[in-house]
Design a protein that fits this description.
Length: about 575
């Protein structure tokens, strides 16, 4: 019988100390390699650090979280890697499996008596489905608005017989539940959303044939229309997973001789390639977050069973560089990359129980994550690496650029796709006018056409608004009939722009830097530093400002974030 929300009590952020060793094990492995943050360096981006970045995959550390289901206590727990014990998120007698974080990390979905969703802290649980059937294999849509899932008859897993299955989808608020694929004679399961959310891949097969025949990878539109078979008639295929860029699909394929291999094909089904053509069994492919590698489970030839001894392998996405990275593990399942791509995690029945383990893609630093001996489901919190490919998480200006984009002040530097920010490119005076007009929501253009040299500039309207607000005077004093929209902005000019825009008046006693004495912008520079918007350009001393240096887009993001942000 399905429990109601009132009957089903769930603890909200109740600290639980069953597993104190979990964090100690993990912290030792992760903290030693935490990369320097922007606060450890010069956020103005002086010449020593200008345009620099750190690639996340170079370091086995990230500040993510893990949720897992412990079958001993029959509850879900959350682990915060950088401090504190695991938190109990549920407190009941239900078996909660199939854990899935929402794409933006605010909610967690799981299957118990139907599908449930709760806050990432265990708060506000609500039940989405209550059909009496078994709902499993949950998959959030990339935008977090829907959940696709497999539905089996209520007694299917109890009887362990061949039974029908269907692919369904439901809105994340519990509305608009509908079947997309499957029937009594043709079962469908394992939905996987394309990265752009427009398509769903799944496995479909004959109800009378389970393992060695009758299974194919299918793809349909997100509304269930245009279903098409991408499989091969001479192989049995399942477990489709999209590449991060959506251009390819990896899957497990079993030949007529019973050998399992990892295949990759184009998203339209063309050009299928066997990446593991040997006598061993390889299955459950998992793409790395950047799409360059594929992890998989591997069993020796002649085994090929769900509970046989197995290990993890990894290879480049074209099948080269194939390496086994664990040895002599019992029942490994679920290779899952951490969101930053620095670790591969899995759960394994090794010793007396089943726990989550992690290993680097090179096979080093094998680490046991949980120690309860009864973990049967886990999921990593997604990491927001950033909307621009050249200022990803770990970049010196990542936080500043993300704020700038979220505030609507920048869209990117390569329209119309705008996948880049170009943090090392210099900012022109025209671009700076546009940034400040958007940031300050300036609307008054005055009489317009205030300068003689910007008539053909795309930024003319923004320049007029900036001048009308008194933030700029021009570039050719004392006449100031010109704005010089294509000239790069210097750090001194940036100081003047921001001081006028923000109304900073306190110079902190003046003469705060050694290289701006007599500079026309010295007073503005001192006021900007006193306001905490600039630190200097020569860390760690920071006794210079470099007023004549041009400002990069990354530095500009840092200036504006400190001046206008939280």
């Amino acid at each position: 019988m399905c429990k109601s929300r009132n009957q089903r009590t769930r603890g909200r952020a109740v600290i639980h100390h069953l597993f104190p060793s979990v964090l100690l094990v993990l912290a030792g492995a992760l903290l030693a390699a935490v990369p320097a943050t922007a606060t450890d360096r010069d956020e103005d981006g002086g010449s020593a650090t200008e345009g620099s970045s750190s690639v996340i995959a170079d370091s086995p550390a990230f500040s993510g979280r893990l949720v897992f289901y412990d079958d001993g206590s029959q509850d879900v727990f959350r682990m915060d890697f950088l401090g504190g014990p695991p938190w109990r998120l549920t407190d009941d007698d239900a078996r909660e499996v199939g854990l899935q974080w929402s794409p933006f990390g605010s909610r967690v979905a799981f299957a118990a008596d139907g599908i449930w969703v709760m806050g990432a802290d265990g708060s506000d649980p609500y039940q989405l489905t209550n059909s009496g059937d078994r709902d499993a294999a949950l998959a959030w849509s990339p935008d977090g608005s829907k959940i696709a899932f497999s539905r089996y008859p209520g007694d299917c897993f109890v009887e362990m017989t061949l039974c029908s299955s269907e692919v369904w989808v439901i809105d994340a608020d519990g509305s608009n539940q509908r079947k997309l694929a499957g029937s009594e004679s043709l079962h469908a399961w394992g939905p996987a959303w394309s990265p752009d959310g427009t398509q769903i891949a799944f496995t479909r097969g004959d109800i009378d044939c389970w393992a060695d025949c009758g299974r194919d990878v299918w793809v349909m539109k997100a509304d269930g229309s245009n279903q098409r078979n991408l499989g091969s008639p001479d192989r049995s295929e399942s477990g489709a997973v999209w590449s991060p860029d959506g251009s390819q699909i990896a899957f497990t394929s079993r030949s007529s001789t019973g050998t399992d291999d990892i295949f990759v094909m184009n998203a339209d089904g063309s050009n299928p390639v066997n990446l593991t053509p040997d006598a061993d069994h390889q299955f459950l492919p998992a793409w790395s977050p950047d799409g360059s590698m594929i992890a998989f489970e591997e069993e020796a030839a002649g085994l090929g069973c769900m509970t046989c001894p197995s290990d993890l392998g990894v290879m480049n996405s074209d099948g080269t560089g194939r390496t086994k990275i664990t040895d002599d593990f019992a029942f490994i399942s679920g290779p899952t990359w951490t969101p930053d791509g620095s670790w591969i995690s899995f759960w394994s029945k090794r010793g007396t129980g089943t726990d989550v383990w992690m290993v680097s893609p090179t096979g080093r630093d094998l680490t046991q994550v949980t120690t309860t001996g009864a973990v049967y489901s886990f999921a990593w919190e997604p990491v927001d690496f950033g909307r621009f490919g050249d200022t990803q998480l770990g970049h010196l200006f990542h936080r500043n650029v993300e704020w700038l984009a979220a505030a609507g002040i920048t869209k990117g530097c390569n329209p119309p796709v705008n996948t880049l920010f170009c943090p090392s490119a210099y900012v022109t005076r025209g671009q700076m006018a546009a940034f400040l007009v958007r940031a300050l929501d300036l609307t008054d253009r005055g009489e317009g056409d205030l300068f003689t040299d910007d008539d053909s500039s795309v930024f003319e309207e923004s320049i007029d608004k900036l001048a009308t607000a008194g933030i700029t005077k021009g570039c050719n004093p004392p006449d100031n009939t010109m704005f010089c929209p294509n000239d790069p902005v210097t750090r001194g000019q940036m100081a003047a722009f921001l001081v006028r825009a923000m109304g900073y008046a306190d110079d902190g006693g003046g003469n705060l830097f050694t290289d701006d004495d007599g500079n026309i912008f010295e007073a503005a520079i001192d006021k900007l530093a006193t306001a905490g918007v600039t630190r200097g350009c020569n860390p760690p001393t920071n006794d210079q400002f470099c007023p004549h240096n041009n400002v990069t887009r990354g530095q500009m993001a840092a200036f504006l974030h400190r001046a206008l942000g939280e």
